[in-house]
């Protein structure tokens, strides 16, 4: 895809940017020029087609610029000069910068970007045809930004970073209007859906490209996930609180669709947090919150007390974010910039400290709830242990008393022995797998030691290092896969051990109830035989009905699949036609522009041709006049020459030769004839013209 096909996009962007108001200007010329140059440098370094993540200092500089000018008019005037749709990586980094400006920039940035919503729609359509790489990533990110802007249009009380007030209590936002709360819940779920779709595309692109999170290419793709973690945690908190609010005033059946969507989002969000927390790139940048095993039960009102809000903790960097330039000679401008930046930094530090206090309170509540849960579980386990001991003593006494049922007890004990043997075999296999797991971990440690040794010999054996590094990565992936498989088998074995222990307890309990059950079985055996005969007859009749019903079901299923495939083909053809229509419209616009250019060129060339023709006619007329004048002068000179020669009596008398006189007369006569011939030719040419 080329940029030249989208001239209309740039024109529309110019028109849209002109609608953004200028809220504040810098007064001094020197200060304004330096500020604009710094903003331009940060913009070009943060938004380019190089596959590296944008540096935080450049994005922070752009955020400060929005606070100094109370908006993003200057930023968008610079974006016009960038070719956003020329490269998918450029569009990807542009979307990330816009996301950060919406979250952390001035509050007017949201209003400015709402004006530019058609431009984001056009970018989304532009990249919709690319189904791989950064093209697909840019499409999903543009779709997320459009959803975010529409959400803020419908809900202006939410800020760019999705906060409401100091407590973020969404339950007091709309009083008790449950219809508005239901609409808000649906919009929050849609917003969460777009974030999870973007996250899914990012992780799938990492799996396809096989990139590492510590490489520049991997970090370029993973960089927006920090903002996604922050937004998704707040959205999940709002959705849970709104659903608890709705369950207080509405019936549970009407909110079934909301609960189903939340359970799906909870599962995807939990997987997203677990994947993010395992990546080494995020360990020093953000602390990802941990979600519980299951979503809250909204049918139980007291479950709200056990709910804790997920709070991510972002580590703030201190060395790379110094943005004040002391090279300016103008001290007044420097003081103003320092004071404004310091005010912004103080407000930012205050908000960060308040956020940390809230996070620590949430963590404290979470720790208290976890300790209470642990105390409850310990007490429950103690009670279960005492009950189990009492139950075991009762079983032993009953087994001693039931000597008459010795044979049956022996059979049950044989079954118990078999279960014990199976249990011991499973324990042996579990121990073997555990030893293999330890061996694999030791191998992993040895491989890490080999990697450090290879790093020390990097300068001398560079080529050999690359080969061994590739081999190490392959072995490391294999070991990780083996570890994952061993963990899965370990979990399965633990589940089997638990199942066998429960079966063993069931066998022991069966010894108590075996006598009573045998008596009941003997009494019910006759009834069962009679009932079995009836069921056999019913079974044959039901099988016949089932076969006929399955035939009808297969026929209807085949017809439904045919209709589904036809409908899907129609939809795909319609999408292709719409895409072709857009391409043809763009080509028509380009052709109209080229036709206008060629028409203008044709008019210019015709005017120039007329001027050249007029100049040519003037030049020809001048040449004709000069030619006539030269002919006349030549003829006159020849005549004068003949006359002068005839007047020279001394020469005439000196020669006394008739031959000489005859030659002179012939020369004069020839000159006269030449003059007459030239004069006739000139007259003939004039008459023909």
UniProtKB/TrEMBL annotation:
<dbReference type="GO" id="GO:0051015">
    <property type="term" value="F:actin filament binding"/>
</dbReference>
<dbReference type="GO" id="GO:0080025">
    <property type="term" value="F:phosphatidylinositol-3,5-bisphosphate binding"/>
</dbReference>
<dbReference type="InterPro" id="IPR011417">
    <property type="entry name" value="ANTH_dom"/>
</dbReference>
<feature type="coiled-coil region">
    <location>
        <begin position="441"/>
        <end position="601"/>
    </location>
</feature>
<dbReference type="InterPro" id="IPR008942">
    <property type="entry name" value="ENTH_VHS"/>
</dbReference>
<dbReference type="GO" id="GO:0043325">
    <property type="term" value="F:phosphatidylinositol-3,4-bisphosphate binding"/>
</dbReference>
<dbReference type="GO" id="GO:0030864">
    <property type="term" value="C:cortical actin cytoskeleton"/>
</dbReference>
<dbReference type="GO" id="GO:0032051">
    <property type="term" value="F:clathrin light chain binding"/>
</dbReference>
<keyword id="KW-0175">Coiled coil</keyword>
<dbReference type="GO" id="GO:0030136">
    <property type="term" value="C:clathrin-coated vesicle"/>
</dbReference>
<dbReference type="GO" id="GO:0006897">
    <property type="term" value="P:endocytosis"/>
</dbReference>
<dbReference type="GO" id="GO:0035615">
    <property type="term" value="F:clathrin adaptor activity"/>
</dbReference>
<feature type="domain" description="ENTH">
    <location>
        <begin position="31"/>
        <end position="159"/>
    </location>
</feature>
<protein>
    <recommendedName>
        <fullName>ENTH domain-containing protein</fullName>
    </recommendedName>
</protein>
<dbReference type="GO" id="GO:0007015">
    <property type="term" value="P:actin filament organization"/>
</dbReference>
<feature type="coiled-coil region">
    <location>
        <begin position="350"/>
        <end position="412"/>
    </location>
</feature>
<dbReference type="Pfam" id="PF07651">
    <property type="entry name" value="ANTH"/>
</dbReference>
<dbReference type="InterPro" id="IPR030224">
    <property type="entry name" value="Sla2_fam"/>
</dbReference>
<dbReference type="InterPro" id="IPR013809">
    <property type="entry name" value="ENTH"/>
</dbReference>
<dbReference type="GO" id="GO:0048268">
    <property type="term" value="P:clathrin coat assembly"/>
</dbReference>
């Amino acid at each position: 895809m080329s940029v030249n096909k989208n001239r209309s996009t740039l024109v529309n962007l110019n028109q849209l940017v002109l609608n953004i108001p200028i809220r504040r200007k810098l007064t001094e010329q020197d200060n304004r020029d330096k500020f604009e140059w710094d903003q331009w440098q940060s913009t070009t370094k943060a938004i380019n087609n190089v596959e590296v993540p944008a540096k935080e200092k450049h994005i922070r500089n752009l955020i400060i610029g929005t606070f100094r000018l109370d908006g993003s008019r200057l930023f968008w005037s610079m974006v016009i000069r960038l070719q956003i749709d020329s490269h998918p990586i450029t569009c990807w980094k542009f979307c990330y910068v816009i996301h950060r400006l919406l979250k952390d920039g001035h509050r007017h940035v949201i209003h400015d970007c709402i004006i530019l919503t058609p431009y984001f729609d056009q970018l989304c359509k532009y990249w919709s045809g690319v189904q791989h790489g950064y093209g697909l990533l840019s499409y999903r990110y543009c779709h997320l930004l459009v959803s975010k802007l529409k959400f803020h249009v419908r809900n202006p009380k939410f800020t760019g970073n999705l906060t409401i007030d100091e407590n973020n209590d969404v339950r007091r936002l709309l009083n008790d209007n449950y219809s508005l709360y239901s609409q808000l819940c649906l919009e929050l779920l849609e917003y969460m859906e777009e974030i999870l779709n973007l996250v899914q595309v990012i992780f799938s692109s990492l799996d396809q490209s096989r990139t590492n999170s510590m490489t520049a290419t991997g970090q370029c793709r993973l960089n927006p996930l920090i903002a996604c973690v922050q937004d998704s945690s707040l959205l999940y908190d709002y959705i849970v609180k709104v659903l608890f609010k709705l369950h207080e005033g509405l019936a549970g059946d009407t909110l079934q669709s909301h609960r189903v969507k939340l359970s799906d989002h909870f599962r995807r969000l939990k997987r997203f947090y677990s994947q993010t927390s395992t990546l080494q790139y995020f360990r020093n940048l953000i602390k990802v919150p941990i979600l519980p095993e299951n979503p809250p039960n909204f049918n139980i009102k007291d479950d709200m007390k056990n709910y804790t809000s997920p709070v991510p903790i972002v580590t703030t960097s201190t060395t790379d974010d110094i943005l004040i330039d002391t090279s300016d000679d103008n001290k007044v401008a420097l003081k103003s910039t320092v004071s404004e930046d310091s005010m912004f930094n103080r407000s930012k530090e205050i908000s960060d400290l308040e956020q940390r206090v809230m996070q620590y309170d949430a963590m404290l509540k979470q720790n208290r709830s976890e300790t209470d849960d642990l105390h409850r579980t310990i007490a429950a386990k103690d009670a279960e242990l005492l009950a189990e001991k009492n139950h075991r003593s009762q079983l032993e006494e009953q087994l001693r008393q039931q000597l008459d049922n010795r044979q049956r007890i022996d059979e049950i004990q044989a079954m118990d022995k078999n279960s014990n043997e199976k249990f011991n075999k499973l324990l042996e296999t579990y121990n073997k797998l555990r030893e293999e797991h330890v061996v694999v971990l030791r191998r992993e440690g040895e491989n890490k030691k080999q990697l450090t040794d290879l790093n020390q010999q990097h300068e001398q054996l560079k080529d050999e290092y690359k080969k061994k590094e590739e081999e190490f990565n392959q072995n490391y992936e294999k070991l990780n896969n083996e570890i994952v498989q061993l963990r899965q088998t370990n979990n399965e074995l633990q589940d089997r051990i638990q199942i066998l222990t429960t079966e063993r307890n069931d066998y022991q309990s069966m010894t108590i109830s075996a006598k009573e059950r045998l008596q009941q079985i003997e009494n019910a055996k006759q009834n069962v035989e009679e009932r079995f005969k009836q069921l056999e007859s019913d079974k044959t009749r039901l099988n016949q009905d089932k076969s006929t019903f399955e035939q009808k079901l297969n026929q209807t299923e085949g017809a439904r699949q045919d209709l589904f495939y036809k409908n899907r083909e129609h939809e795909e053809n319609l999408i292709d036609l719409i895409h072709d229509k857009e391409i043809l419209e763009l080509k028509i616009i380009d052709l109209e522009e080229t036709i206008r250019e060629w028409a203008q060129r044709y008019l210019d060339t015709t005017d120039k041709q007329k001027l050249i023709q007029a100049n040519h006619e003037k030049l020809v007329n001048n040449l004709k006049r000069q030619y006539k004048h030269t002919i006349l002068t030549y003829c006159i000179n020849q005549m004068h020459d003949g006359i002068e020669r005839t007047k020279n009596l001394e020469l005439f008398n000196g020669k006394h030769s008739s031959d000489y006189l005859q030659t002179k007369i012939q020369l004069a006569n020839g000159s006269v004839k030449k003059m007459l011939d030239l004069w006739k030719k000139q007259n003939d040419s004039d008459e023909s013209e």
